[in-house]
Amino acid sequence: MRRRMSVAVGALPLFLLSLCGGPAHARDTSKGREVYSLCGACHPTDSSNGAGPGLAGIVGRKAGTAAGFRYSRAMKSSGIIWDDKTLDAYIGEPQRVIPGNVMPFSGIADPGARADLVEYLKTLK
Amino acid sequence: MATTMKKRTVVICGGGLTAGLIARQLTAKNVDVLVLERGYDHTRAAEAKLPNQRDELRWATHAGLAQDWAVQTYTLRHGRNETALPVRRMEAFLPGEGMGGAANHWNGQTWRWAEYDPTLRTRLEGRYGRKAIPADMPIQDWGVTYGEMESYHDLFERLFGIAGKAGNLRGQIQAGGNPFEGPRQNEYPQPPLETTEAGVIFTRAAENLGYKPFPMAAANSPNAYTNPDGMKLGQCQYCGHCERFICEASAKGSPEVLLFPMLLKRPSFELRLRCHVLEVEYDRQAKRVRGVRYVDLMTGEEYEQPADIVVLASFTMSNTKYLLMSGIGQPYDPTNGSGVVGKNFCHQMMSGVNVFFKDRWINPFLASGASQTCVDEFNEDNFDHTGLGFFGGGYIYSNVTNGRPIASRLVPPGTPAWGSSWKQANADWHAHSFAITAHGSWYPHRENYLDLDPTYTDAYGQPLVRMTMDIRDNERRMSEYCTQRAEEIAKGTGATIVASGTPRRGPYDSRVYQTTHVTGGTIMGADPGTSVVSPHSQHWDAQNLFVVGASVYPFNAGYNPTGPLGALALRLGDDMVRYIDRPQIL
Lengths: 125, 586
What we know:
heterodimer; A: 125 residues; mainly alpha; Cytochrome Bc1 Complex, Chain D, domain 2; 6 helices; globular; B: 586 residues; alpha+beta; FAD/NAD(P)-binding domain; 9-stranded mixed sheet; 6-stranded antiparallel sheet; 25 strands; 21% helix
């Protein structure tokens, strides 16, 4: 978890991927998958819900709207749309970004690890 | 009139830790398993989610996840000449209700018992002479050795992601671990939790006295962890809400997280919730059980559930109760020491000393259930008892598991019990204090036992289990001795205030917390004359009945009971696979 990559650069390959439409061009998300192990006990990678909501389609989704999951009022009323920037900020300091949310996680301090994770989250459809 | 259900291969009474582990072994071989559990599924209910999870009054003070005492309680008396009365408010132990049982709300303190514990009688007689063990202390060997259990300990630790530091790797003593532990094949699957400030202080004081402090092994996961079954634990947040709570971060090794979600996907497994088992149906002539009778708590209807094999996997007293209610095995009689069911009922002895530091921030609210630092020099037979007048002992540790506002406020001696100086003392010392505690053993006494109460009944009309129980001389002396050792460490911490040690003296009081570990009643051993179950947990008087849990321990060690509980349950699962192939006395 040492890598630093700006969010903007990180977003580009995904854009290309969506143009080319083939996994052969996918950027390496194995680091992000590794970081995701911190989340995996609660968050499924599909649209089912665990102790936390399923993360399929998380990027681009409005916060607090996964079907069938009971969110805190703080999360539901946050008005946040999950993108590179908001995900990075929230994963960094969950309670600062959405005070009163009930995800029992203190955050990931390493910005590189967060960027890797966000890249991985983008692959969850 | 009870409805008769379709016959099943294995029926397990109680859906807790041991049931989950046995079912894991059995269903892996496609054996048909039905678990009957009186409680419901807590997963993602209020008790498992923020903010309600943090409700100390509801889950801790009122023990919201434990047995409902208005439905079923126990009676207590201190001696055979007294009349026992029902316990209405329980602190001494917390039988769980619901899928996962008490191991959902445990602290996560995970010990293998000492290498000599399964052969304790042999050990003590060998060291102190054949006559050294008093006649009223019916300690006995288990009929199984540590070596036979080691691989199951190892498996349990990997399944539950236990965090710790090995002290004895294949016979080599390891720096930083417990030098008194039995030889392990492998290091713990996870590194230890963070050391708390209390642990730092304790470590220095203990080392100055020549002891070897080490981190307690913990089922509170320091990292995200995936076990050999692919089941996942989250990362511990050190929130101090472990014991009496369900971990909302899925970071505590518990059956609700690691076992039942997996089992429920296996085709040969069924869990029936809200089903309270009333008794086991026993064919005395054939010396076999036919099944169980239970009540569906949602409808009040009774069912007969035939089974090839029955496993009693309920809380300690319930296992004894089922045997007594069903007339299986000879009840223990303390007047002449005959009989076995109900024998060797034991608890544990906690005592200690509080320390207060004006300039150190202990911050007890930043802790997990097992983020503690221990020394094992004074546990059980880790030291020479010659001339001491007692057997047993305990580990001594920096006892910080939480800083919860109702239960966990230490104030210096002499503080009034209410009013503004009490408030001031709380404000001054809450973040600056902790207890150095001895977690002590309890060896059996001839007059400590369980039977059925002649007067009081539960909500189903069945007699309550009666505890005849007191703290006897052996345990008092042990508590004196261990408390003095804790005091010596406390005085070496440089604390601003060191309170006096408070050894347990009795009388036994079920309203007082002193670990929640009760053992015995259906004890194991190699001799059918002195034990209820064989070394393979098989009932001597019904070969298709197995009993598992702390009720099979012939005594209670100075260690927390969960480690051997897990190992014995996994081993029983494998034994039962063999039994199904070839039914016989194992």
